[in-house]
Design goal:
Elements (H helix, E strand, L loop, with lengths): L1 H20 L2 E6 L3 H14 L4 E6 L1 H9 L6 E3 L4 H8 L8 E6 L1 E6 L10 H10 L3 E4 L5 H12 L3 H4 L3 E4 L2 H9 L5 E5 H4 L2 H6 E5 L8 E7 L5 H9 L3 H9 L6
Parallel strand pairs: 1-2, 1-3, 6-7, 6-8
Antiparallel strand pairs: 3-10, 4-10, 5-8, 5-9
Helix pairs in contact: 2-12
């Protein structure tokens, strides 16, 4: 009897471990969080596969993959990190550009700092601000785009000593929404999110002053079927319509 129980326990363990191992983990850039939640909901209408989702800066996610993290699909905020993984032969192929993002300047409503599109208005807003939120440019493509924008506009020297850095663009956005920073640079997709929009005002910044933010996704080698299905769904008209509502352009 004890032997039978042991065998049953072992079989249960093997079954549980195998089932657990089949659950995909999807790594998603922080700027995509609200848009991806809407896409995931729509995807699950017709697909029953289960997966976990983690959000973070593209740089941190890429580093985790290089260190062996068992992600199945990487939905990045730029092209460089997925293409580097492809060069290292860690992905099925070079993947697809699924969206083109934009940066926006965000202002906490209660701070009373007006933001306008002219250089004079931007200069005034930066002078009035005590803290300016930005994502770490070495980790987050939207942070790098913000730095490029400030330098191209000739405002870097004015802003650099006021910058407070978030590990990803979602964190930098929350600094402004919570009032920890007066103004900040974010992804347009996050500025449009209802929770953020309630507390802030935003201004879409001139895309000619930073490199286009082409967001690429890649499947890891041996990605399970549910990850492949999600990858394909990300290219569907339904997913693209959701991305457009969050301010993304479709390539």
């Amino acid at each position: 009897m004890v032997f039978i129980k042991s065998i049953l326990s072992l079989l249960f363990f093997i079954f549980f471990t195998a089932a657990h191992a089949q659950v995909s983990t999807i790594a998603v850039a922080a700027n995509m969080k609200d848009a991806f939640l809407a896409i995931e909901k729509e995807f699950k209408v017709d697909h029953k596969g289960d997966f976990r989702v983690i959000y973070g800066s593209s740089g941190n996610i890429s580093a985790q993959i290089l260190n062996g993290a068992p992600f199945s699909l990487f939905i990045s905020a730029d092209e460089s990190y997925p293409l580097e993984l492809f060069k290292r032969k860690m992905t099925r192929d070079e993947g697809k550009v699924y969206a083109i993002g934009k940066i926006a300047l965000l202002s906490k409503k209660s701070k009373g700092i007006a933001i306008g599109s002219s250089k004079a208005e931007l200069t005034k807003a930066i002078k009035q601000a005590n803290k300016i939120a930005i994502a770490k440019p070495e980790l987050a493509p939207y942070g790098k785009a913000a730095v490029d924008y400030l330098k191209a506009e000739g405002l870097w020297d004015l802003a650099k000593d006021k910058l407070v850095y978030g590990d990803n663009i979602s964190m930098a956005t929350m600094y402004v929404a919570s009032g920890s920073a007066d103004i900040g640079f974010t992804a347009l997709s996050l500025a449009l999110a209802p929770g953020v929009a309630k507390e802030t005002e935003y201004l879409v910044l001139n895309p000619a002053l930073y490199e286009p933010i082409q967001q690429r996704m890649v499947l890891m080698k041996n990605a399970p079927q549910e990850a492949v299905a999600l990858y394909q769904f990300m290219q569907s008209p339904k997913a693209q319509a959701i991305l457009r509502t969050f301010g993304y352009q479709i390539p």
